[in-house]
Each structure stands twice: as structure tokens, then as C-alpha cells.
Amino acid sequence: MRETRVNTGDTERTPARLLLRFLARHPRSVGTLAAVGITGCYVGFHTMLLGAGVAVAAGASWRLLDRPTFDRFAGRLVRAWWRRWFVYQRKWADIAFGCGLTSSNRHGHSLVPKLLSVRSTFCWDSLRLRLVRGQAAEDFEQVLDRLANAYNARRATLRTIKPGVISLDVQKREPFDTLFIPLPEMPREDSAVDLARLPLGRDEYGRDFALDLVGGIHYLIAGATGAGKGSWMWGLLRGLAPWIRSGRVRLWVLDPKGGMEFGQGAELFHRFATDDQSGLELTREYVDTLDERKTEMGRHGRRTWTPGHSADYPLDLLIVDELAAMSEYTDRDISREFTKLLSKALTQYRAVGGRVVAATQEPTKDVIPMRGLFPTTVALRLEEASYVDMALGEGVRDRGAFADQIPDYMPGVAYVKTEGSREPLRVRAAYTSDDDITELVRYATSHDAEILDFPNRDNGTETESADSPDTGGESGETDDIEHIEVIDDGEDEDDDEDFDAA
Ligand SMILES: Nc1ncnc2c1ncn2[C@@H]1O[C@H](COP(=O)(O)OP(=O)(O)O)[C@@H](O)[C@H]1O
Ligand SMILES: [Mg+2]
């Protein structure tokens, strides 16, 4: 009953019936037109035209001033409506016929899948379609390329909404094809670091995109091998460079795949573990340290920790490169304890300066049972469509986060979902090359940093620079010279001068 029939020649399909049916099926479009008509009759068409003119002008200036919010609240609705009627619906019957997606019933009537609705995001449009009887989603699967071509789209993908209803998703735009993403300048002053805005790259609208360790709190970064997780994590560290140097942020880095990702930065880290056993010890120590701080702050009646404001407590950032190696592909005992400790870190240290950034290739429940505890989630290119909702949350792929469709020649592109915002944002991180990492390491380990003296800092395996007391620039006191010799060769000292001059 529900299929649209074409050329039926049915005697009961009189124009009046068709009109009535149309009215009943599209209450919103018809209602809007009726409202406009009635208003016109009451206030006169001149007034209404004037009103419409004002509305259009207001919308246009809104769009000009702040495209992303315009798009989020108004643009996508207008675009979806426009495209539905003037792009997709107009050509649909022909395209369905051309792609072999029509069929006929025993009376010889042609049946065309019905276009139910269109949703639009900045890059993707989703066409909801009702299959005709006898058709399956696979029939569409086979002609996805043809459908994409027919609508001048870059690619198309399919998902099943419910039995008999599918969504054909077509990518209309790829801003990152042409958008060059400059690597944000590495800050050189403590005061230049804003924890709530650590610049990383650009979003799909071409705006600067920054990580937010204040409101965003903990980050989960999911991405297949080669998807660009490294750029995200190193980009974050570059944004923190002066704080790493002065000890305002301490890095606890767990790179259980033998230090492949973070080996280059070992000097920067307060603690560094490259296998699962030492990783567990590192996590234990991290939790103990923050537990202690929590108790201590409670004793002193301090309830919150202000990032970077006071030198009393540093920001303690726990970075885990491959969660699966700690939570799944290891001994049961290690994984069980690690999972417990990480869940604690994610839930209890927000107010005392504990932050977690963790990466994973598979965001499945087995690998990250605590994935719901990350307020901000990032999905780079993923292997499976089902991984997207696992990483970003239920239903986020439906809202346009097609992370599984990010092509592999676009590493660094991701969808970001923050707590409290419904819509995912498409983002690309700037590329952090080995040279950029070297620059960071040189800068952050240079000896003339102003070192804050933290009461609870212990010695041991800390990086040398974090350990050295305040040298006050070129004061060159004797007890520092050893450090200088250990860390910096002559070449590095030259570079440090460059940095200071810059
Ligand atoms: N933001 C980016 N922009 C451009 N290319 C990138 C970006 N991030 C990574 N790449 C490229 O992709 C490759 C794989 O990135 P990597 O960070 O090692 O992936 P992962 O850690 O997710 O396996 C890098 O060697 C680099 O050439
Ligand atoms: Mg990596």
C-alpha cells in the first residue's frame, strides 16, 4: 500500500485525491505555506513581503557572522527542505529507474521506493527511503556508486533504519580537500597556555579548533591504525609546551606497544611505561598520587583546583596510547586492575587536576568498558560502522558522524562529540611531524625554564628538566651545571637561544 505508484492509470487517482493525500502527508511544508498565505491575507501582502525581506536579511547576516551556529539551528533545516524538494525528490524516480531500483507488481504498475524525508548536515545529506516490496537493502548496496554519481556526491553509504526503511547517506562536501591546516604556533610562555583552548587544527567550517581540558575534561580518541591518533596527542602536548617545561603539567605516559608512539618524547614525561606490567604500576602510582592530593586538599579545606592558577598542584595528565593492550590483550589480572584504576581516574580527579587522554583502535565494550566515562569522544577513521556509536555514543552516527567513511588518505580527520552537544563536529588536526616533535622536546627540556617548586614532587624517574630547580635563566649555579650537561649538548643550547629570541 505504501509504495508510490507511477503510471498506474488508476481511475480512483483523481487530482483531488492526489492533492488531499499530498496535504495529509506533508503537514509541515503545507502548514508553512498555509500560514504564510493566511498571514498575507490578514496583514496585506506588502507588509508580509517586507517581513519576509527582514527575515531573510536577518538570516543572511546571521549566516555571515556565525555560520556554524546558523547552520546548526536554521541552515540545516532550510537546506534539508530545499534539497528534498528541489534536488532529491525531483530526480528520484528517474535515478531509481536508472539504477535499477524500481520494480513492478503483477498488474504491471511500476513501483518506486518512496523518499520519506531528508536530513542535512554540513557535509552529509541523509535520504530516508521506503523499500518497495521484494526489495532489500543489498539492492541499494550494489549501486551506491551510481547513486552517488547521480547526485554529484562524493560517496554514498547505507544504513537500515528499521525493516523496510533505509537511509541513503550521501557526502556532498569535503572541506578538508582544499582546506590547508597550518600547525598552530607552539606557545612559548606559561601565560600563553589556556587549558580550555589548546589549538589543534580546524573544523569543517574552517574555524580554529582547540582541545579543552577544562570543560572537555577527559578525551577518548578512537581510530584505526594510521588514522592519525598521533597528530591529536602530539598536537595536545605542543599546546602545553611551556607548562611541560615549567612543570605545571606532568605527563604520565603509557605506551604499551613498546614506546612506538611516544618514545621520541621520553624526556618530557614525568613517568613513562612501555609495557603492560610497568603500565599498571604507572597507573597505580597515578591514582595514589591523586588520591593523596584529594585527601590533602580536603584537609586544607580546598574544594577545587584551578588549572595553572596556583603552583601548588600541577595538572596531572595521564596519556594511554593503546587501551586495548592494557585492558584486553594482556593478563586477566592486569586488565582487571587497570580497568578499575582507569575508571577511578576518570571519575574522581576532575577537581584535583587529573586528566586522561586515551586512544584505542577498537572502541568495543571489551576493550573500553569505561567508555561512557569520557566526556569528550573523538572518532577518527574507524574500521566498522558499528564502532562509530561505540566511540561517540548511541545514535551519533545517525546524526552525521560517518567516521567509517573517512577515507584513508585523510589522516587526522575526525568527528568530535562533546558532552552536552547533540551534533558531532567534523575536525581535522594539523599534522605534527617528527621535526615538530623534536622542536617540542628541545624546547620543553631546555635548561633555562622557570621551574616551579612543587611540594609533593619526588625524585626518581622524573625527567631531568622537571627535576632541576629554578636556574633563573643564565644564572648558571654550580648544582645546575650537571643537568645542563646531561640534557643539552652545545647544539641544543644554540637552539634554545633561537627559541628565546623568537
Ligand atoms: N593530521 C594529519 N594530517 C595529515 N597527515 C597525517 C595527520 N596525522 C597523521 N598523518 C599521517 O598519517 C600517518 C599515520 O598517523 P599516526 O598518527 O601514526 O596514526 P595512528 O597513530 O592512528 O596509527 C602519519 O605517518 C602521517 O603521515
Ligand atoms: Mg599511533
TrEMBL record:
Compositional bias of kind Basic and acidic residues: 451-460
PANTHER family: DNA TRANSLOCASE FTSK (PTHR22683:SF41), SPORULATION PROTEIN RELATED (PTHR22683)
Domain FtsK: 206-389
Residue ranges, compositional bias (Acidic residues): 487-502
Organism: Actinopolyspora xinjiangensis
Region described as Disordered: 451-502
UniProt cross-references to PROSITE patterns, sorted A to Z: FTSK
Nucleotide-binding found in the keyword field: yes
Name of the protein this chain belongs to: DNA segregation ATPase FtsK/SpoIIIE, S-DNA-T family
Highest rank taxon of the organism: Bacteria
